[in-house]
């Protein structure tokens, strides 16, 4: 009878519904970073490298390929990590409360410019912090 059909569950149906729910939750949680290409707007989302890692790791933990969004975030993370590897000593030296080596204004500007040109479609928080320092100095 028709009432019995409503209670039927196909093999794997609950697993699939669970995956869909996890993907929806991932998209909703990280929507501001995932949606659109913000390179041409003034309102780019700011994200730290730690947050990028979290986004990518949580996306990778969902055992399904959900397309361009996860690839986009992985690419931005890769770009951000390359940038950070290049400028790590500068970022560390410029953290609040750090007392260390002197930092050249030219180096700060170079790091900020490099991030703006080479780190995807989001503003990297670490680079923005350096940019704020440049503004205070100038």
Notes on the protein architecture:
This protein has helices at residues 2-7, 13-29, 31-34, 49-61, 68-93, 105-118, 125-137; strands spanning 46-47, 123-124. It has one domain (7-137). The chain has seven helices and two strands, in the order αααβαααβα. 67% of the residues lie in helices and 3% in strands. It has a two-stranded parallel sheet with strand order 1-2.
Gross geometry: rod-shaped
Q: What would you report as the Rg, rounded to the nearest angstrom?
A: 21 Å
Q: What is the average of the pLDDT values?
A: 84
Order of helices and strands: HHHEHHHEH
- The neighbouring-strand order within the major sheet is 1-2
Termini separation: 78 Å
Q: What kind of sheet is the major sheet? A: 2 strands, parallel
Tally of structural domains: 1
Beta-sheet strand percentage? under 5%
Percent of residues in helices comes to 55-70%
Quick structural gist:
With 138 residues, the protein is mainly α. Helix content is 67%, strand content 3%. The protein has one domain (7-137).
Distinctive features:
2 strands, two-stranded parallel sheet, mainly alpha, 138 residues, single chain
Write the layout of secondary structure elements.
Elements: H1 2-7, H2 13-29, H3 31-34, E1 46-47, H4 49-61, H5 68-93, H6 105-118, E2 123-124, H7 125-137
Parallel strand pairs: 1-2
